[in-house]
């Protein structure tokens, strides 16, 4: 491996769904340059991708994520937000998890508000809002 970050290698890792490898790869460079916004964005995207992969795998299988998977996803999305608070996707994903699996509509509403504040759009937005909003 060279001394400079190889964007193509990183992209290949993501495309191949080698998400742990992508996280480890970008983190090696982020340790050397922890304030680099491009590296922080890439580290956030890799973590978000891994969390979304866990969620989509469960959805495709028609199974509910285990408590360990929920914890892992939440941690990955929170790490992504800490790395790049302007990336809207992790807020959306946390809203979904808190609404669907944790029965925490207030937290879900907060994360959804953050995603919307950042301009996030999703085909399922109205359905998530309905899950969060109390009936009445």
Describe the main β-sheet briefly. none
pLDDT under 50 segments (min length 5)? none
Q: Which shape, going by the Cα principal axes? A: globular
Query: In sequence order, what are the helices and strands, one letter per element?
Result: HHHHHHH
Note the beta-strand portion.
Answer: under 5%
What's the overall average pLDDT, rounded?
95
Specify the oligomeric state: single chain
Number of helices: 7
Strand segment tally: 0
Helix content: over 70%
Indicate the structural class.
mainly alpha
Question: In angstroms, what separates the terminal alpha carbons?
Answer: 59 Å
Radius of gyration: 16 Å
Textual characterization of the structure:
The protein is 72% helix and 0% strand. The chain has a domain of 65 residues. The radius of gyration is 16 Å and the shape is globular. With 136 residues, the protein is an all-alpha fold. Helix 2 runs antiparallel to helix 3 and helix 3 runs antiparallel to helix 4. The mean pLDDT is 95.
Q: Main attributes?
A:
136 residues, globular, 72% helix, mainly alpha, single chain
């Amino acid at each position: 491996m060279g001394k400079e970050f190889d964007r193509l290698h990183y992209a290949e890792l993501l495309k191949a769904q080698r998400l742990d490898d992508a996280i480890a790869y970008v983190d090696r460079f982020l340790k050397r340059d922890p304030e680099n916004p491009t590296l922080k964005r890439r580290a956030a995207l890799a973590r978000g991708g891994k969390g979304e992969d866990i969620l989509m795998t469960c959805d495709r299988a028609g199974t509910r994520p285990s408590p360990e998977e929920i914890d892992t996803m939440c941690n990955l999305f929170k790490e992504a937000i800490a790395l790049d608070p302007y990336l809207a996707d992790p807020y959306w994903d946390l809203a979904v998890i808190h609404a669907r699996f944790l029965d925490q509509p207030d937290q879900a509403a907060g994360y959804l508000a953050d995603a919307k504040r950042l301009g996030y759009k999703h085909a399922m937005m109205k359905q998530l809002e309905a899950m969060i909003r109390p009936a009445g």
